[in-house]
Amino acid sequence: MNWLTNIIGVPLGWIMWLLYSVIQNYGIVLILFTILVKALMFPLSVKQQKATAKMSVFQPKIQEIQKKYEKNKEKQQEEMMKLYETHGYNPMSGCLPMLLPFIILFGLIDVIYRPLTHILHIGSDAIAKATELLAASGISNTGRPELDILTHINDPALVNGLAADVVSKIQNFDYSLFGIDLSVVPTWAWNWFLLIPILSGVTAFLVSMVSMKMNPAANQQASGMGAMKIMMYVMPLFSVWIAFSVPVGVGFYWILSNILSGVQTVILYKIYSPEKYKKEFEEKMQAEAEKKKLERAQRKKIKVDPNEPLDPDTEKMLLSEKELNRKRLAEARRRDAEKYGEEYVEVTDKDLM
């Protein structure tokens, strides 16, 4: 896993270095980095929300296809692909936005563990020498050599054993946020650091809950409500466990990222809501139906004004047999619903078979 975090950490490290060269505070840089990541991922989030809105609209049709072709998986898949094509939906479109945050997180862990390499651009030889000097001084190795060097940079062994410019650069490195040392790994001891893992889990849970509440149909199609509910509880617990295993800088990034994701989810839902897409899709289908009627009128040499509503007789002449049967059945259902006070149920293709 180290080779993966190293590879991802390199480009992220250069971004952090660029930000730090302007703002000489690692904590502020981490905040700006989180905002920048969200901004760069925003187009993918928009695409994902659009796909989610579409899914919410044709979810009933998916269930109908699954039930109808339950014993014929090949036909079921064929009908599903036709449905996706009609709605312009790619079932794999939501995978990348879900995976990217974890990929970035692994890279960020490397940057936070190795700030001397990524942010200060101190050579590997100097870091190796500093590690040897700490070991010779009897300072225990925590497995985080660059963070150990930061913690003990004022130790005489390092001050006297390293080049003066290297010592000065490390001593002037501000690795804190509002006085909080971002290199500390949280423990269950009663202090402020304990809040970081807890808040990372709480914010992750709230984001999952908001997402499920706003897009229930898409979540059902994705893997069933049972699985989604399990994920809603498991992922926050996973984030707590991770936050207790890494420096608080990682947990802080996760908290801020979760907050931004929650705000983004609410905003995108208002802009690209399922209700809005449903209305647009129905208008599109209506326009295509009208276009087909005009084409039939031309073939049958019936004069119609596209800007005027059709009279009932002309409309019947232009409807296909299937459309005519659909309209008759819909009218009958509507009459029965009004007569008996029942709920009107839309006519589906299954009803016309």
UniProtKB/TrEMBL annotation:
<keyword id="KW-0813">Transport</keyword>
<feature type="transmembrane region" description="Helical">
    <location>
        <begin position="230"/>
        <end position="246"/>
    </location>
</feature>
<keyword id="KW-1003">Cell membrane</keyword>
<keyword id="KW-0653">Protein transport</keyword>
<dbReference type="Pfam" id="PF02096">
    <property type="entry name" value="60KD_IMP"/>
</dbReference>
<comment type="similarity">
    <text>Belongs to the OXA1/ALB3/YidC family.</text>
</comment>
<feature type="domain" description="Membrane insertase YidC/Oxa/ALB C-terminal">
    <location>
        <begin position="26"/>
        <end position="269"/>
    </location>
</feature>
<protein>
    <submittedName>
        <fullName>YidC/Oxa1 family membrane protein insertase</fullName>
    </submittedName>
</protein>
<dbReference type="GO" id="GO:0015031">
    <property type="term" value="P:protein transport"/>
</dbReference>
<dbReference type="GO" id="GO:0051205">
    <property type="term" value="P:protein insertion into membrane"/>
</dbReference>
<feature type="transmembrane region" description="Helical">
    <location>
        <begin position="189"/>
        <end position="210"/>
    </location>
</feature>
<dbReference type="InterPro" id="IPR028055">
    <property type="entry name" value="YidC/Oxa/ALB_C"/>
</dbReference>
<feature type="transmembrane region" description="Helical">
    <location>
        <begin position="89"/>
        <end position="109"/>
    </location>
</feature>
<keyword id="KW-1133">Transmembrane helix</keyword>
<feature type="transmembrane region" description="Helical">
    <location>
        <begin position="252"/>
        <end position="272"/>
    </location>
</feature>
<dbReference type="InterPro" id="IPR047196">
    <property type="entry name" value="YidC_ALB_C"/>
</dbReference>
<feature type="transmembrane region" description="Helical">
    <location>
        <begin position="12"/>
        <end position="37"/>
    </location>
</feature>
<keyword id="KW-0472">Membrane</keyword>
<dbReference type="InterPro" id="IPR001708">
    <property type="entry name" value="YidC/ALB3/OXA1/COX18"/>
</dbReference>
<keyword id="KW-0143">Chaperone</keyword>
<keyword id="KW-0812">Transmembrane</keyword>
<dbReference type="GO" id="GO:0005886">
    <property type="term" value="C:plasma membrane"/>
</dbReference>
<dbReference type="GO" id="GO:0032977">
    <property type="term" value="F:membrane insertase activity"/>
</dbReference>
